[in-house]
What we know:
alpha/beta, Nucleotidyltransferase, domain 5, five-stranded mixed sheet, 10 helices, 43% helix, disordered C terminus
Amino acid sequence: MKILAFESSCDETAVAVVEDGRKVLSDAIASQADMHALYGGVVPEIASRKHVEAIAALTDRALADAGVVKEEIDAVAATYAPGLIGAVLVGLNFAKSVAFSLRVPLIPVHHIRGHIAANYLAFPELEPPFLALSMSGGNTLLVDVAGYTDFHLVGATRDDAAGECFDKAARVLGLPYPGGKPMDELAQLSAGGVYDLPRAKIEGHELDMSFSGLKTAVVNLAHNAEQTGKPLDRAALARDFTQAVSDELVPRTIRAAELCGRRTVVAAGGVAANSFLRADLQSACKKAGIMLYLPPLRLCGDNGAMIGAQGYYEYLAGARADWSLNAYATREIDEPVVAYCNP
């Protein structure tokens, strides 16, 4: 089964062709990162306009790269939530028009479900059940994945997402947007242990996280150094910040796996590309006797292939959307996708 998949939840326009949920035939991505770097973050209106400009040609490219013609497409999958609402609407409505013109089913896909499913593309042997840690610019979640379409949220950030904090910390340290890779590279230059940064605990909710205090602490340290003229060890601050994020995520992931009775952990999302987090997860999982799956770096960020992978399993579960399907800026991963129907 060949699925044409669309992803446009933030600042990457992505179109892919995926076969049977596991084989990537093409994965075309148009990034807007350089443009948004001028503003230090994503400007939603610009993101939406750029999606409109890119998506038609990118679709032609994805089909050509896959070596298939439109008539060979069996279904269309698209991100419908969560994300920047204008951006999501562009990809979703274009996907509707493609599904309508080809007379094939339209499959709605939750963006975070897609991130988790990216691992199916890299690891053919991976099957649920497992515990997933999804960490990106907009979401940080601990999810018990009981089946391909059976998700149970067991922990989440109460405020900022881990990826958002990386971007904000990078900004105050004078690093370019997006901040994840520059922060990782800067942190490599120090052993850390210089700055005492907070780790949050949510009373009565051991698996939930909070990153707003950590973000504020980094901002205050940088601003105080600037105002007083005191030296700021940027590399050490980047390293200590990264360690604080890891200390929030890794122990909770192991604890969540224990509570859910899972012996497999899957990482997902853009923050899963961070070298320190990957190393800490590997060490913790090895110590706990847990099998760990880390997606290759190319599948950590937003891409269309992950939407095609999850779209296949949503299709098998009966997910069909009609042309009234709306986009959502926020939607829980364990909410029903949509009312299933046949367009």
